# Entry
Amino acid sequence: MPAPINAFATNFELALVFSGVVLLWRYVFSPTARAHTRTPLLVAWDISLSDFFLFLWIVICGGLVFPVVAQQTARALALSAQTKLILVNAGFQGGMLAGVGIYLLCFNRSRSRPSFGFTASILPGIATFLISLPLIVVVGLLWTGLLKLCGLPVEPQDAVAFFKKAQPPSLLATMIALAALVAPLTEELVFRAGIFRYARTRLPRWAALLFPAVLFGALPAHLPSFAPLVALGIVFSLAYERTGRIGTAIVAHALFNSYSVLRIFIDPTAT
# Structure
């Protein structure tokens, strides 16, 4: 990459992280923020344990069945390995999203449904994204250092090389759409609007925050990104709890994924 573009990208990234530090201080650590107690706006999910397990079962079935269908379709059409992998990933995300939809439309007996409020969620979502950046940087550095200290490999995700090698452009555009649009919607509905919303009134608060975040961090099955993603999941849950709108977490997640994709093409060492 040309030096001027690389310098601009580095400065822009530093500006985002610095903005996150400022917001983190203003809304979390400043004396004013600590003195001002806000009542969480998230409404409790009043469903039974059996209904919650039904929700999980439908989502998991969707995430297992749709990729198999996508794989068989790709095989029947003799599609390339790259296209096949993208179809399987789309099937996984789409299957879980379909599971959420099926549960909400056919089985949900609760009067409390996830509140989206995307228009009202834009600014809080941007703030949540910026606040997450310095936290992810710190957690990532500490986690990477721990892995190296333990002699464990710190390798980029397979998706990094996959994005860089994606051809033709339509394939790359599909991958970006999945990462920036479909995955944030699906994962926030499952992990935050589903698991966290149920757990927050039934488990100790630390456990309700940590449990879905650990599942979220384990989803990519990539050890170097595990701890940063756990931290990210906790931030998204706190933002959802504070605003009561899942749209806040979806917007923040979409921005984070878009930022991560952009870094893949700018920073060759991105993980």
User: Anything to note?
Assistant: The mean pLDDT is 90. Residues 54 and 79 are 35 Å apart (CA to CA). Residues 3-44+115-266 form one domain.
